[in-house]
Every structure is written in C-alpha cells, then in structure tokens.
Design brief:
The chain is of the alpha/beta class. Helix content is 36%, strand content 17%. The structure holds zinc ion (ZN). Residues 129, 131, 152, 370 line the site of zinc ion.
C-alpha cells in the first residue's frame, strides 16, 4: 500500500500516541492531544503519582549515595531525546541520572563541562534481540554505545552471572533476558545442546511460565518455527502459544514470538503476543499481514542484520569502516570479513520490502541484531541494523527511536531510552547528526552508562569504567532549585 503522506514529526507523534502505555501517553497527550489526555486522565494521574514517587525516592538515594559527585554537563549539544531533535541543549547529569535538559547553562556553570559542539547526544542504544554468552559480549556492546541488551535466550548456566555482572558493574551493558525460550519438544532452540525444559501442550504453559518468572526472566520468548516445521522440526501449536501468552500476561510479562513465516505471524498475533522477533523470511512485502500486525499493536523486531549476514561480503563494510575498525578485535574483523555458515542469500530485497510494508502500515518496528547469528558481532551489528532499517524505508529518526525510546516503551522499561529528567544517564555522544545520516551513529565520541564514562579504547581485558573527572564535593542542597527530578518520560 502507499505510504501515507505525513511529515516525519506527525508520524512519530502518531506512533507514540498509538503505542505508548498509559503512563507515557499521558505526558505526551498533554502536549499533542488534549482529548485523549482527558480520556486517560485518571490513569495518568495515578501512574504519574507512582512514578514521581519512584523518581523522587531515586533522587534522595542519589543525593545520599553521591556526596562527592556533583555531576557534569554535556553542553551545547544537539539532543535526540528518543523521539525528536533539539539543537543547542545542555544535559545535566547527576548521580547517574539526567537531572535537567536546559537551553541555558547559567545555573550549572559550577559543574564540569563536556563540550558537545558539533555532536549529537542520543540515548544509549538498546539491542532488542541479542544472545549473550559472557561478560565480554556485554562489554563489546557497550563499546559501541549499546547500553542495554535484551537477550532472547542464553544458556541458563550463564544467565544469572550476566544479570549479576550487569547490576554490579557499569563497564558492561545492562542485561535483561527472556531466560529459557518456550519451544516444543525438539523445536527450534533445542538444537544447541543445552538441556532446557520444553512445552509439549497448552496445559504445560502455566508451570513453564511460572518457572521463568521465578527464575528472573524479564519477558517471555515463544518459538513458532513454521519454516523449520516444513522440514520436520516440531513447533508450538496455536492453543499452546495462546496459553503461554495468557500465562505471561497474568504475571505482567511482555510476550514475544520468534516467527519465520507469515503463517507464524498470524498464529502469534491471534495468540495475543506483544511483539514479534524476526521478519517473515519469504514473500517480501505483505501489506495484509503488516496491517494486521499494526492493527493489533504488535511490535516487530525484524533482525535484518542476521539474514543479511548470509549475503556475500555483507560484513566487509562494517569491518572496513574507519569509525568502527579501531574498536574491533582481530577475531571480529575476521568474522565480519568472512562468510556465514549456511546457504547464501542472493537477493536481500524481499527482507527489506517486508519491513517496508510494516513501515507503510505504521507498525512499530524495533532494532535488534540477533547477534551472534550469521556474521554479526555484539554492539557493532546494531549499527548495521539501523542502516538496514533506513534502507527498508524508516527515516533515520524513526530508526533511532527504534533503538531507544520505542524499545523502552515496548518492553516497559520506563527508566531509559530517552534523554529527559529522571532517566538513567545511559548516553552516547556521536559526531555529526544521525537524525539526518544514520551512519553517524558509528562515529562515537564518548559513551556513558549510568553517568559513568566507558573507556572505549581499552582492550577487553583492560576495559574499565572511570568516574568523570569532577571537582570537590558539593552538597545536594546546593543544586539549583529547578533541578527537581521528574519522571523519565
Ligand atoms: Zn535470536
């Protein structure tokens, strides 16, 4: 179908109005759409009240725990806040959170300044589809500005250790995980030699999801492997998928389905999932499927970088990019310069067209790499994913939102993905303007996680975070009056 004629700004706003959960809708609706705000006002005020309390208690904790760290300012910088750009802003970071985003630096001249002239500050990127095996993966992600990874299945033997590392350390990306995926006995996910529980029938769903929740899973991943099923691999049936989604939702968990075919998409959508992992592999643009996905408010993480890894020489441009190469290990350069194991994809256009049809239908598309499949690598391949999303038809601004605010909204992680007061100071400073040229995300100048800068040049073994250099202690009571934290929108 034809792309509706509207400005990128109108499109962005509309996507948010349709997709945002109530607590995010109310802040936006007040600005853009009064009547929707009225309809949600009771929910808004309740939710905002709760979030304000959380933010304020966070403020108190920060003030108490950071007596010697008054913060710093990234000054005179273009800000992409997760939704849109603002020129010449000053972003104040205190105690690991964004304290203020202001036009005038005057009230903050006592703080150390990072000059952002000519650069753009973006929220830390979120890879919405990763498979993380060790702490080095998390560090590699952070090196390329990916401050949060959403793992979609890893070995249960390493899962808890990764959670602990991400909680304890700021020199690795934050880590969230689906834990063990929900798949049929012998289904996709069981072929890796890792002993995992499976789901044979709908009546197994409750116990399976309860175990995931108890084990710390942040969301549920359900596997519908329709293409593999055609070759004899078992797959979940619709009733079991529906029972799994119901069990997830009853525990407040987001449910995401791995899909391979358009039929998988239909089953997933009718089961009530919140999102889809991967784009359908065959047929290219599918306006009817895309319309269905959009109508049901289901988000899609196409993970284009992985199938593109089966296109000949597709990794060479990443390996040879002078903005990336100095930060890549020899092993990763060799990986990206080589070929994926598996059949070569001759024509990648159908994958791009499929995503294009989602975009035309106004479905919510999120950025995820599915690293380390094919010839993808942690961190760096998300930049390729952003490039591919733009090639598929998203504007650079939409692609950036797909890796920041929109992921946070879709996965209900309200403390990040945006540059706004109260949000975690997970930040990436890049040279140039990625809202006009998406390739600028590769030109990273500095990376902070929770307000602490990461040393990108250190080798993995040496990598360590360092506190920003700051002057002597300053009491929280000396902070300017307008610094009150509000919610991270
Ligand atoms: Zn995956």
């Amino acid at each position: 179908m034809a792309i509706k004629e509207q400005s990128p700004r109108q499109r962005r706003v509309r996507i948010f109005l349709r997709r945002s959960p109530p607590f995010m809708r109310c802040t936006r609706d007040r600005r853009f759409n009064g009547d929707i705000h009225v309809r949600h006002s009771r929910l808004c005020s309740t939710t905002l009240g709760v979030l304000s309390a959380i933010a304020l208690s966070g403020h108190a904790r920060i003030a108490a725990s950071q007596p010697s760290n008054p913060g710093f300012v990234i000054a005179h910088v273009r800000v992409f806040d997760g939704r849109q750009s603002h020129t010449d802003r000053n972003v104040v970071i205190v105690g690991g959170r964004i304290q203020a985003v202001v036009e005038s630096l005057d009230a903050w001249r006592h703080l150390p300044v990072v000059d952002g002239t000519g650069a753009t500050l973006i929220p830390g990127l979120i890879d919405a589809h990763s498979h993380t095996q060790n702490v080095t993966d998390l560090q590699q992600a952070l090196r390329f500005g990916v401050t949060t990874v959403l793992d979609m299945f890893t070995d249960p033997a390493v899962e808890q250790g990764l959670r602990d590392a991400a909680k304890r350390r700021v020199d690795v990306a934050d880590f969230r995980s689906a834990g063990v995926l929900a798949t049929a006995p012998g289904g996709h996910g069981t072929e890796y030699g890792i002993a995992i529980p499976t789901v044979a029938r709908a009546s197994d769903a409750e116990a399976f999801v309860a175990a995931r929740k108890a084990g710390g899973s942040d969301y549920l991943k359900i596997v519908l492997n329709g293409v593999r099923a055609a070759r004899g691999t078992p797959t979940l049936d619709a009733a079991t998928a529906t029972a799994l989604v119901r069990a997830a939702h009853s525990r407040g968990m987001v449910a995401v389905a791995h899909v391979e075919s358009t039929e998988d998409v239909r089953i997933a959508v009718s089961s009530g999932v919140d999102g889809l992992a991967h784009i359908w592999r065959e047929g290219g643009a599918a306006p009817d499927i895309a319309e269905l996905v959009a109508r049901k408010n289901v988000f899609v993480i196409p993970t284009l970088a992985t199938p593109e890894g089966f296109v000949k020489n597709s990794g060479v441009s990443l390996a040879n990019d002078s903005r990336l190469r100095p930060f890549l290990s020899d092993t990763i350069i060799a990986l990206l310069s080589g070929s994926a194991k598996g059949p070569v994809i001759e024509d990648f256009k159908p994958f791009l067209d499929a995503v294009g049809s989602l975009r035309a239908a106004d479905a919510l598309v999120l950025a995820g790499s599915d690293v380390p499949n094919a010839i993808t690598a942690h961190g760096v391949s998300l930049h390729r994913e952003l490039e591919l999303l733009v090639r598929a038809g998203l504007t650079p601004t939409e692609a950036l939102a797909a890796a920041t605010a929109n992921v946070a909204v879709a996965f209900k992680i309200p403390d990040r993905g945006m540059i706004a007061p109260g949000c975690r100071a997970d930040l990436v400073l890049v040279r140039g303007d990625p809202t006009s040229d998406i390739m600028a995300t590769r030109d990273i100048l500095r990376v902070w996680r929770s307000g602490v800068e990461f040393d990108r040049r250190a080798t993995p073994a040496e990598a360590k975070s360092r506190e920003p250099s700051i002057p002597a202690a300053k009491a929280s009571s000396d902070l300017p009056a307008e610094s009150t934290l509000t919610v991270c929108r």
